[in-house]
Amino acid sequence: MAGNDTPIMRQYQTIKAQHVGFLVMFRMGDFYEMLGTDAVTASGVLNITLTRRRTTKDEEGVPMCGVPYHAAEGYIGKLVSGGYKVALVEQVETPEEARAARGSGALVRREVVRLFTPGTLTEDSMLDATHNKFVVAVTGDADQPEATPAHLWRGALAWLDLSTGDTGVRTVGGATLATALAALEIGEAVAHPATEETLLKLLPRRLLNVQENLFNPVAAKAALARAYGVDVQSLGLPNTTATTALGAVVAYAELTQMGKLPTLKTPHLVSENTRLALDPATRRNLELTESLQGTRAGSLLACIDTTRTSAGSRLLARWLHEPLTDGTALAARQQAITALSPVLDQVQALLKSTTDIARAASRLTLGRGGPRDLQALAQTGQMLPQLKTLIAPLSASLLAALARQMDGLQSLTSTLSKALNPDNLPMLARDGGFIQAGYDTALDDLNALLTHSTELLQNLETEAQATSGVAALKVRYNKVWGYYFEVPSATAAKLAALPGSFIHRQTTTSTQRFTSDKLLTLERELAGAGANALRRELELYDTLVAEVKTASVGLLDAAEALATLDVLAAGASLNAREGWVLPELTNDGAFEVKQGRHPVVAATTAARGEAFTPNSCNLSNGQLWLMTGPNMAGKSTFLRQNAVICILAQLGYPVPAVSARVGVADAVFCRIGASDNLAAGQSTFMVEMVEAAHILNRATPKSLVVLDEIGRGTATYDGLAIAWAMTEDLARRGCRTLFATHYHELTALAQENGGVFNNVSLHRVAVKEWKGQIVFLHTVEDGAAEGSYGVQVAKLAGVPNNVVARAETLLNGFLKSAGQTRAGGVKGVARLDELTLFASTPQTIAAPQKPSEVQSRLEGLDVDTLSPREALAELYDLKALLH
Ligand code: ADP
Ligand code: MG
Predict the structure, then answer these.
(1) With a 6 A CB cut-off, is 613 part of the ligand 1 pocket?
(2) What is the end-to-end Cα distance of the chain in Å, rounded?
(3) Which of 59, 447, 460, 597 is 20 to 30 A from 534 in CA distance terms?
(4) Nearest residue CA, atom 17 of ligand 1?
């Protein structure tokens, strides 16, 4: 960068070198500029012009682009959502200050004032109102040997949402880390180098930030002490690793905010086994918070979210990410949902007019809030007493606790309500005008001066006219002289004769101009009033923000109470408005659903004007249902609806059924066979098997397992063998299991094993054949499906007739050589012990021989339409063909 070796470039280079991995936005006057490769990157992402910075006209210079300072937020947001991190460099003194301190030509000092990283954003414009964005930290126990096998690894996971002050920590093991991470919406992750490899298997590299020093136990503990202002001991963290992980995440946030932190909530401690385990594949396959297309629309969350606030929406997502296993906590939620019914409409209406106070408080305490954030707190504070009055008398201990949690804001609310002028609330405090008249006398005086200036000047004019006896005297103003009295030259002597009252200033062709002590004073006051009023307002703003800080623990409590109430009310609304029922939760192995529905599929069918057929299910005490039925019959829907019902039940929520009895599960597993999911581009047979292995390693008799067409992604007999072995294993284990399969051979497990698996039973999703067409009934009934109707489905799908006819022929050939008949389904199947599943040379299905000409000709004959004559002719022809 020849020629760019100027002091300012050196200043830039120093900062740039200290912030590897960040795009540096460098404040120069009214712009933030980016230089070098940063400029090339940013101009592309932001679609802004790339120029060059040159010190002399001839040199090559460096690439440069810039954005105006007042519009920076939008540009930064775009860069961060594009996966970049931004270091924002400000001028921290004025050029005058620089000159005064270090002589003429001194360079203005510049410093990084903020690091924008995807996990530490606080600006509304950069955040999704309905999602948390966590920065997480993971570290392993210090005392485990380096060669610890992955599944024996122990450590801790901590998380923090800087925009709401939510924090939490849990201990994790090699087997539970993936599930624990999947429960968090992660913006970025910081990790100790020793856990880098483990995390890379679970998170995309771009989210990962490896930093050793953050995990120094002493430094981490100190960060916690700074953030909470209490003895770290009193936080009750489970062990040193957890303390270090939480400290690391807090220290990282502090680093990005240049030492500032919002008030943090007391860390949420998640003990092991208190959450329903849902691994990443299960969440994905059940489309809990995202559809398979990656959108919120089409997910279970979108379907059940009738919350009225963004904070409620965020909390519902958290609940759905982490259903409970604790019966007492679940009973408390159910009780609250029931109790809310009679006041549901009022509660939801009040909630709707509350604001996102956690995020407002976070911005204010980080020093980047504004009058509107204060107003948000005031507005919500005013709603709290009404909400409290509504819910406190209801007979639910959880609601009573929430009512108490709403208590701590009276004084802040009353101060803010008195202080703020709701008719003028600028984004930024520096725009002024947001303090209500009557709140502060000093400010009122200054404002009075400004608003009454005309009147005051007129008063002075009248007074001067009286004193001087010159009726033509006028108060005038110009930029050079400011205010003055002007009189026609002829009358000037009268004023000149009163030197105690009037001071001569200037003579023009026809007038003379005077001033007076009073006019000078008023002028000074008027000139200063604007600036003074703003200064006073900013002082008051700071005092109010300080009060917010003082009240912030109460504020965060109230925020949490509101969000919780919102989520409970949303649950009550599913009951009141959708007719869902609260399930009976038990401690045993029950799972009995009467007339269940899949909420998302039912909504889409309803949108098409079709009815959804409800279906019952009973897997109590480790029943395994083998589900068969043609494609499109509704197997996958039935499987998922039961898994979803289990999950909703463990939210403490109502479920879409007529009634349900659910023994609280420790885990729900859901897998989809590879071929079902190829469109998503993520499934290979290997992935399918890895995921299946995970289930077999983890499922207990308390788990609910849903397997949809497992074993499809490979050759027929491999797949069958695997599916078979898995079914046996799950049946032996006594997991409540739904297993949909197209391997009709598997049905032998239920029928022919002499009672070894008396917990395995056959079910099918009914279809009927009508005039060669297949009609889907979507009803689940006992028994095995009669064939798979693949050819009919193909026909239904519009595959051309000639292809369908040919497929029909081929199918008959296949079945004949495999010793089956189409309609016979299971009946004709080779017995299980004859299948020699594990023979070293896998049996292959004989390909049908190419039909002879005679066969083809016969196949093509429509006998019913032949006249006797034609038939006879045909016979002769056929006979001739044989020779
Ligand atoms: P399969 O897994 O047997 O191929 P799916 O479960 O994917 O079938 O269902 C296919 C389609 O059938 C669904 O997209 C839905 O439109 C419809 N469907 C499924 N179950 C029902 C039901 N119980 N009532 C009404 N329509 C249903
Ligand atoms: Mg399916």
Answers:
(1) yes
(2) 91
(3) 460
(4) 634
Q: Ligand 1: which residue has its CA nearest to atom 18?
A: 634
Q: Is the pLDDT of residue 338 over 80?
A: yes
**Residue 130 to residue 136: CA distance in whole angstroms:** 19
- Phi/psi-derived region of residue 52, left when phi > 0, alpha when psi is between -120 and 50, beta in every other case: beta
- Summarize pLDDT for 8-33 with one digit per residue, the tens: 899 999 999 999 999 999 999 899 99
Instruction: Answer whether 656 contacts ligand 1 (Cβ < 6 A).
Output: no
Please give the backbone phi and psi of residue 81, each rounded to the nearest 5 degrees, phi first.
-70, -20
Neighbour-count burial of 21, counting CB atoms closer than 10 A to its CB (0-12 exposed, 13-18 middle, 19+ buried): exposed
Range 339-362 burial, b when 16+ CB lie within 10 A, else e = bbeebbeebbebbeebbbbbbbbb
Question: pLDDT by residue (tens digit) across 260-272?
Answer: 999 999 999 998 8
Pick from 816, 639, 830: which is nearest to 736 by CA? Answer: 639
Task: Tell me how far apart the alpha carbons of residues 3 and 9 are, in angstroms, rounded to a whole number.
Answer: 10
Whole-model pTM? 0.82
The gap from C-alpha 538 to its chain's centroid, in whole angstroms, comes to 35
- What is the spatial distance between Cα 373 and Cα 230, in angstroms, rounded to a whole number? 27
DSSP letters for 38-63: HHHHHHHHHT---EEE-SSSSS--EE
| Rounded distance from Cα 707 to ligand 2 centre (Å) | 10
Tell me if 348 sits within 8 A of 308, measured CB to CB: yes
Q: Which backbone phi and psi does 552 adopt, to 5 degrees? A: -70, -25
Written as one letter, the residue type at 82 is G
pLDDT, tens only, 407-464: 989 999 999 999 999 998 988 898 889 999 999 999 999 888 888 888 889 999 999 9
Overall size of the chain counted in residues: 883
SS (H, E, C) 352-383: HCCCCHHHHHHHHHCCCCCHHHHHHHHHHHHH
Q: 22 CB under 6 A from ligand 1?
A: no
The ligand 1 atom at the shortest distance from the C-alpha of residue 597 is: 23
Residues around ion ligand 2, judged by CB within 5 A, are 636
Q: How far is it, in rounded angstroms, from Cα 234 to Cα 436?
A: 42
Comparing CA positions, the residue from 817, 824, 822 lying closest to residue 845 is 817
What residue type is assigned to position 357 of the chain?
A: I
Distance 228 CA to ligand 2 centre (A): 51
Residue found under tokens 């984004």: 427
CA contacts within 13 A on the Cβ side of 447: 17
Best mutation site among 631, 632, 641 for ligand 1 pocket (most ligand atoms within 8 Å of CB)? 632
Any ligand 1 atom below 6 A from CB of 629: yes
**Ligand 1 in contact with 636 (CB < 6 A)?**
yes
H-type alpha helices, 585-741: 599-607, 635-649, 685-698, 716-733
Residue of 601, 628, 676, 775 best suited for mutating to test ligand 1, as the one with most atoms within 8 Å of CB:
601
Closest residue to atom 5 of ligand 1, CA basis:
634
Distance CA 151, CA 216 (A): 25
For ligand 1, atom 19: residue with the closest CA: 634
Ligand 1 atom 9: residue of nearest CA: 634
Q: How far apart are CA 737 and CA 259, in angstroms?
A: 52
- In the numeric block, the tokens 């909630």 are attached to 351
Distance between CA atoms of 299 and 251, rounded to whole angstroms?
35
Place of tokens 């485990």: 144
